Amino acid sequence: xxxxxxxxxxxxxxxxxxxxxxxxxxxxxxxxxxxxxxxxxxxxxxxxxxxxxxxxxxxxx
Length: 61
Fold this sequence. Notes:
This protein is an all-alpha fold. Helix content is 59%, strand content 0%. It comes from Neisseria musculi.
């Protein structure tokens, strides 16, 4: 099996091991950016505002 880890990955793993509070903060920050619930009304508005795409983008009108 292949167990290569880059220097950056080893550094991050070592840092998290030495600073366990950073792992908790990392999860908290992830929740701010990635684990968010989308508002269905806003999403519907975004979908309605989309313009149809042309079959060939470089063809002049």
